Amino acid sequence: MKNTKYILTDVSKEVFGVKLFQIKALVSFGNVSKDELGGWIEKEENLSVYGNAWVSGNAWVYGDAMVSGNAWVYGDARVYGNARVYGNAMVSGNARVYGNAMVSGNAMVSGNAWVSGNAWVYGNAWVSGNARVYGNAMVSGNAWVYGDARVSAKLSYTKGKFVGGDDSETPKFTNVTDKMGNSYWKNQYVIGDYEINEIEETKEVTTHEIIELNGKKYKLIN
């Protein structure tokens, strides 16, 4: 299909040995106006000519990465490698999505967050702050991963700290032990300097303190 959605302008810059071109909308669509200047891509294959997908601000999309559907990449975000951002997903701030990573659905990756490797963030999931999601990790549902959290599901098991997990009215921070990682991450909150990784050992669980998050109190277990 002929690209009637946007053009690669003559304005370019080289980053890491790759030539990027600023894009310009040829028609109005979604929240984009005709003749509006966008962000920077290497080639037409980086941004779908269908849907309302767009790259704006100082965002870069290059390599074999693709932004499609109604997805939006903006701010100083970088999407590269074989990464895919699609659906209604948004990548913003200084976020990085690369490798074979995928961000889809209504997912948001923002702040200084990185999503890499074969990781997949989808559903209504939100990854922000200095969080890192990598390896074969999957974050889905209404999950929040933020602060300095790390999520890397090398195997099907995880360990670390999270909020929730039992659908009770009084969810608590707890160590994850012997829980299947992919399904268990739905609707969870991961915060702070915590590592979520494959199980190496089972540690004794002891209660430490009560903390408050979004107006609710949680029991911290370590």
Can you describe what's shown?
This protein is mainly β. The protein has one domain (6-221): UDP N-Acetylglucosamine Acyltransferase, domain 1 (3 Solenoid). Helices cover 2% and strands 37% of the residues. A ten-stranded mixed beta sheet has the order 1-2-3-5-8-11-14-17-20-24, with no helix packed on it. The protein has a seven-stranded parallel beta sheet with strand order 4-7-10-13-16-19-23, with no helix packed on it. The longest helix has 4 residues, at 181-184. The protein starts with 5 loop residues before the first strand and ends with a strand. Residues 154-189, 191-209 and 218-222 have low confidence and may be disordered.
Please describe the topology of this protein.
Blueprint: E1 6-15, E2 18-25, E3 37-41, E4 54-55, E5 60-61, E6 66-67, E7 72-73, E8 78-79, E9 84-85, E10 90-91, E11 96-97, E12 102-103, E13 108-109, E14 114-115, E15 120-121, E16 126-127, E17 132-134, E18 138-139, E19 144-145, E20 150-152, E21 161-163, E22 173-175, H1 181-184, E23 189-190, E24 195-196, E25 207-213, E26 216-221
Parallel strand pairs: 3-5, 4-7, 5-8, 6-9, 7-10, 8-11, 9-12, 10-13, 11-14, 12-15, 13-16, 14-17, 15-18, 16-19, 17-20, 19-23, 20-24
Antiparallel strand pairs: 1-2, 2-3, 21-22, 25-26
